[in-house]
């Protein structure tokens, strides 16, 4: 076995078997096991694993383990002053767009756009949504602006931009700039290449060598972004949602799994299995979290959002998060929600497209969940 293909497959299957064995230890009484076996999923080796991840009482332990894998504690307490500053305020027809910044962790300042429906009455409070961009020029494209060195965002299916499309449904939309993109690329990367698309590699290797992860930093900052959004006078702090696409779908998945303030979540063009997506083809290094497969596959992490509402949106022809993996993830997440007694809070849409934002059903779904 010179080429280690079989070695990697054996390693993956061994970890999957270990997760299943660990799940069986807490499977419950014999009667529970008998009932469980009668309606087990198609893949019997995963049956106990799915059953365990539908156990809401054990969710706290699984969240704690995920926090450890991300290295969240290394970023310090997430409770410092936000010190927000409004940098720009523009009225654009039926919405008002602000560019703001605030403090997150370790002295970092996070820029973001906030898009608010125009004409709110004094004291009126709407649901707040965190909208997460993926790989590309950053937050600007989510509000219809061009990123440095990138063409202006096309009108496409969503009209002028995603944030305004959501705001027109009665939501206050915050679009943070994820670390490593847009205005948050490293200066050393830009000195080397003024058109560097992102700083994911430089950030990831530096954080990994220090025992941290870029995913952990992004989740920590997402929690701080939620802190800020809850302070907005137009936002009902009890009605917070999260929606993200591709790399932003990863942020939404991890953030919503860990932060119970997220009342509803939309995961776009990301939900899959690790085996059939980031382990099957080259992906950005920011996707990889050391040791995570010892605890969970991606559908298990999505299942941590239960019993809160979750919507998965994926393209039938997505080349980097393939349909087969999405189909498997949807089936496993649906089973987790069913076993948790909240199947009606899970929905999905496989749209006729590739790796792109769609929104045909998910936007209305998110607004409905947060406004009900």
From TrEMBL:
Pfam short name (any one): DLH
Biased composition (Basic and acidic residues): 24-36, 46-56
Signal sequence, renumbered to the chain: none
Disordered: region residues: 23-61
GO function term, MF aspect, one: hydrolase activity
Domain Dienelactone hydrolase: 161-280
Protein name (Swiss-Prot/TrEMBL): Dienelactone hydrolase domain-containing protein
Organism expressing this protein natively: Alicyclobacillus cellulosilyticus
